[in-house]
Structures are given as structure tokens and as C-alpha cells.
Amino acid sequence: MKNLLENSTKSLLKKFHKNCLFKNILEDSEALSFTFDSKGNLKGRFYCDEKYQGYNNRIHGGILAAIIDESMVHCLMGHGIVGVTTHLDIKYRMPISIKQHIEIVTCIYNKYLGGALYKVKTEVIQGRKIVANATASFFTDMNKLTN
């Protein structure tokens, strides 16, 4: 199942997401990596390099938001779903230190409107503590994405 999910992600990313600004910045640096577990949850790892800081010694909140959104898109694509973010709600629970890794866990937890709207959630962990969590809605409209 893991390989199937990862192959689906690669195929859909290549078709619909190859020019994404943050995907190219973050993935080309090899700082961000994703894999699927046996339950279909996406697991990610990101190194919080100094170049991603906002306030001194803290990762920039906008960079973290982009990482969270990117993980949600990857999770959906692994399940064969191409969607656009319609709502993203992030709770920054504590500062995220630079020069350390964060772990990202993302899963789809609901779908509505016959599969046109998906709900996704992410937890960000650093030092065994949940430092941020997020929920989002994604709308799938293949007509708009393919034109």
C-alpha cells in the first residue's frame, strides 16, 4: 500500500503540481521528505534550517504554513485526490526552533459532497511535543485543475 500511495503522489504531483513555488523551494533543498505509513497516513520530516527563520531562532510561521499545506496536498494525492485548499486553520502551540527537525503527520479524516470536499489534519512535532496542529478543507474540481 505504501508504494502505491507514493507512486500515486509522484504521478499527480508531476501532472498538477510541478511548478508549485514552495514545493520547489522546500523539496529541492532536501530539507523536506514524505513517506506513507501502512495506514495511509503521510509522515514527513523537515529540517528547520536558519534560512527559514522569522524571529530569532524560530521558524517563520508562513514557512510552517506552507509545509503543512504541502503535506496535506501530498497526502491527498497519495490517495488519488487532487484538491485545492479552501480553508486552512493552524494553531501554533509553541515556538519551533531552528537547527532541529520537525515531524509532520497528516491524514484525511472526512469527505463530503460525494467526495468533492475533503477534510485533512496535520500535527507538527518537535522534541516529542506537538508544536502546531492544523485542519483544512480541500475542494476537488478536476475541470478547473485540468483547463
The neighbouring-strand order within the major sheet is 1-2-4-5-6-3
Q: Mind telling me the C-alpha Rg?
A: 15 Å
- Major sheet, described briefly? 6 strands, antiparallel
The total of beta strands comes to 6
For the record, what CATH class applies? Alpha Beta
Low-confidence stretches: none
- Tell me what portion of residues adopts beta-strand conformation: 35-45%
Average pLDDT level: 84
Structure characterization notes:
By secondary structure, this protein is an alpha+beta fold. The chain has one domain: Roll (Thiol Ester Dehydrase, Chain A), CATH 3.10.129. The protein has helices at 2-16, 21-28, 61-78, 142-146; strands at residues 32-36, 42-47, 84-92, 101-112, 117-126, 129-139. The protein has a 6-stranded antiparallel β-sheet. Strand 5 (117-126) and strand 6 form a beta hairpin. Helix 1 (2-16) crosses helix 3 (61-78). It starts with a helix and ends with a helix. The mean pLDDT is 84.
Question: What is the compact description of this entry?
Answer:
By secondary structure, this protein is an alpha+beta fold. It has helices spanning 2-16, 21-28, 61-78, 142-146; strands at 32-36, 42-47, 84-92, 101-112, 117-126, 129-139.
Describe the SSE topology.
Blueprint: H1 2-16, H2 21-28, E1 32-36, E2 42-47, H3 61-78, E3 84-92, E4 101-112, E5 117-126, E6 129-139, H4 142-146
Supply the key terms.
4 helices, about 30% helix, alpha+beta, about 150 residues, Thiol Ester Dehydrase, Chain A
